[in-house]
Design brief:
This protein is an all-alpha fold. It has one domain. Helices cover about 70% and strands about 0% of the residues. The protein has a two-stranded antiparallel sheet with strand order 1-2. It starts with a helix and ends in a 5-residue tail after the last helix. About 40% of the residues are buried. The N terminus is likely disordered.
Length: about 300
Amino acid sequence: MNVWWKKAIGVAVAGVIMFFIIRNLVSGLRELDSLEVRVSTWRIVGAFALLGLLFAAYGRIWQYILGKLGHGIGFAASMRIWFLSQAGRYIPGKVWFALGRIYLSERAGVPRAVAAVAMGLELVLVLGSAIVVFGAASALSPGLAKAQYMWGLGLVPVIVIGVHPRIIRAILAKLKREPGGFNLAYADTLKILGLYIICWCIYGLGFYLVGTSLELGGTTPAFRSVGLDLYPEMAGINALSWAGGLLSVVTPAGLGVREGISGILLAEVVEKPYPSLIPLVARLWVTIGELGTLGLVFLFRGWK
């Protein structure tokens, strides 16, 4: 395939992604248009700052995983690969962001098999860490400390044991996927799991700031938190709902699934109509943040 066709396909894919992102944003704004919603400016600004920190952390962890698999790349390149591939989640069918990650990594000099293994490892650790955070929230938070939510806590030891490199190698060997240069120790996988747990805590803090910034009908909601008393619940709810959205194969970027899980769990800790309003505003928060980051990625695309 010559260079011209490669560029044409790249532009077409970028156009499709932007179409779905903008459609998602416009749809959310229309839903809010009929509501008299006011927000706390400093909380929203803080939420966007945390989102920027979160994106940078994800790019750094991807760089770390590739390095442990024997293929180091620069941070800027890792950030670009991670974020551009994440934009593929907005296209219906979860395969696009995974294929995009592998393709972009291969262009950066990472063998396809290594990128595929790194992608699988990331997914396992991201989902596992989300369950750990939800499990901790269900144990620490009165609103989620119910029998139907305590399963997350029971899965924590399973996840901690399941990320042992011997188990990962055995699975890869069965799949005939283990790449050369696999240099992950148990301490490394636990470190990555811990880093993703920290990422969920950061993400959850942003979700908390967005949720507690809202005022409907010009009145201060009864759930407005003075301190961080709602933070554990909201961090756990955000982690589990995001994981559910990721596992939803059909919907773009987990649209509908994430909001549904959030709404059900938020109904345990906040008053109506906030269980349905918070996920909607949080979706807009993330979409706007991703659009802004996409702009920065293209602006600094020449950086190594």
